[in-house]
């Protein structure tokens, strides 16, 4: 239940509901009573967005990401905060970590701050099934405050999602590796998220089409730290691969350090592809081929959608941006 539902049930505008919430003297007592009875009947808790419509908004956006030290998350936070600051909104940031319970707590915490909207950055807040019950806490929160997701999808009212097609991008890049003669391809990941799973499935699909299989799905259990990735690979005694597809650029950079320590030429002996087209990709030697996950585009979709929402227009659903391979020195095709 959100402000649009309350307005429809009461037969009034959302601005009138907002005025009732703020006890404005410009609303008839009979109307106030009817709206309040409906809110009580449906256990509706007004959000900052509801209070601000037609009046003085709190002009505060809640941003939630697992780890702001992650390059992808940091760039998204910077992009969104700058855009909303230019629009006259303040942003409050909460780093939830990756644990399910901590994600729930982060959403609840910022919701209590009566923010005008919540933006969740990363697929850790999603599930393989967009209707999964484990994402019900997001649907519940969306009954009170508009929720926007960057690179994650949860199906529900008042939820707007912008995401990269990770499966398609990974499948296409892996297919190019195979066409270039690579047959022993390893997939590297760290955190277990929906996005990571889609990337792995994309790699597997391309290999299956060529009658091949992944050489391994190595979930390193790190946070993308470069030297730890290198050391992990060096400890594997019989690693025999000619291609590595990494779920992010930090893992790919670690793979390049592994190749150098082993005396492998890149891309001659080993082809490496990263993900996200981060600054790390141009700090490597050779520079890293990587998939551009269209992060600025995803953020802009969220910004534009939120503007429409603040104009009183309900916004929900998902929008895809197509990722593409940026070819640099770690591939030979």
Supply the key terms.
alpha/beta; Rossmann fold; six-stranded parallel sheet; elongated
- Please count the beta strands (DSSP E, at least 2 residues each): 12
- Neighbour order of strands in the largest sheet: 2-1-3-4-5-11
Number of helices: 12
The CATH architecture of the largest domain would be 3-Layer(aba) Sandwich
Structural class: alpha/beta
Detail the poorly predicted runs.
none
Distance between the termini: 52 Å
In N-to-C order, the SSE pattern is HHHHEHEHEHEEHEHEHEHEEHEE
Most strands sheet: 6 strands, parallel
What report would you give on this structure?
- With about 325 residues, this protein is of the alpha/beta class.
- Helices cover about 40% and strands about 15% of the residues.
- The longest helix has 16 residues, at about 70-85.
- The protein is elongated and about 80 Å long.
Produce a short descriptive summary.
The chain is of the alpha/beta class.
Q: Topology of this protein?
A:
Blueprint (H helix, E strand, L loop, with lengths): L2 H8 L3 H8 L7 H13 L6 H5 L7 E6 L5 H16 L3 E6 L4 H13 L4 E5 L14 H7 L4 E4 L8 E6 L1 H14 L5 E5 L4 H16 L6 E4 L6 H9 L8 E4 L2 H14 L8 E5 L13 E4 L2 H16 L6 E5 L2 E3 L7
Parallel strand pairs: 1-2, 1-3, 3-4, 4-5, 5-11, 6-7, 6-8, 8-9, 9-10
Antiparallel strand pairs: 10-12
Helix pairs in contact: 1-2, 1-3, 5-12, 8-9, 10-11
């Amino acid at each position: 239940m959100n402000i649009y539902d309350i307005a429809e049930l009461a037969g009034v505008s959302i601005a009138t509901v907002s005025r009732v919430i703020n006890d404005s003297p410009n609303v008839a007592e009979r109307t106030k009573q009817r709206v309040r009875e409906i809110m009580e009947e449906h256990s509706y808790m007004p959000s900052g967005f509801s209070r601000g419509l037609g009046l003085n908004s709190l002009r505060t956006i809640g941003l939630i990401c697992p780890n702001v030290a992650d390059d992808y998350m940091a760039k998204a936070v910077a992009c969104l905060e700058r855009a909303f600051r230019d629009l006259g909104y303040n942003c409050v940031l909460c780093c939830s970590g990756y644990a399910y319970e901590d994600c729930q707590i982060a959403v609840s915490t910022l919701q209590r701050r009566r923010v005008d909207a919540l933006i969740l950055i990363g697929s850790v807040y999603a599930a393989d099934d967009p209707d999964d019950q484990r994402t019900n806490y997001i649907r519940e929160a969306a009954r009170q405050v508009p929720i926007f997701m960057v690179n994650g999808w949860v199906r529900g009212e008042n939820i707007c999602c912008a995401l990269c097609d990770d499966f398609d991008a990974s499948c296409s890049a892996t297919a190019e590796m195979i066409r270039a003669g690579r047959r022993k391809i390893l997939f590297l990941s760290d955190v277990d998220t929906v996005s990571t799973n889609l990337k792995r499935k994309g790699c597997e699909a391309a290999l299956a089409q060529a009658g091949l299989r992944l050489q391994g799905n190595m979930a390193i259990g790190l946070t993308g730290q470069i030297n730890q990735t290198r050391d992990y690979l060096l400890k594997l005694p019989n690693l025999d691969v000619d291609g590595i597809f990494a779920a992010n650029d930090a893992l790919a950079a670690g793979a390049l350090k592994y190749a150098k320590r082993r005396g492998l030429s890149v891309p001659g002996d080993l082809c490496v592809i990263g993900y996200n087209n981060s600054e790390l990709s141009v700090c490597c030697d050779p520079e890293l081929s990587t998939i551009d996950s269209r992060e600025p585009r995803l953020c802009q979709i969220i910004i534009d959608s939120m503007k429409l929402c603040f104009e009183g227009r309900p916004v929900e659903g998902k929008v895809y941006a197509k990722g593409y391979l940026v070819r640099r020195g770690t591939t030979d095709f």
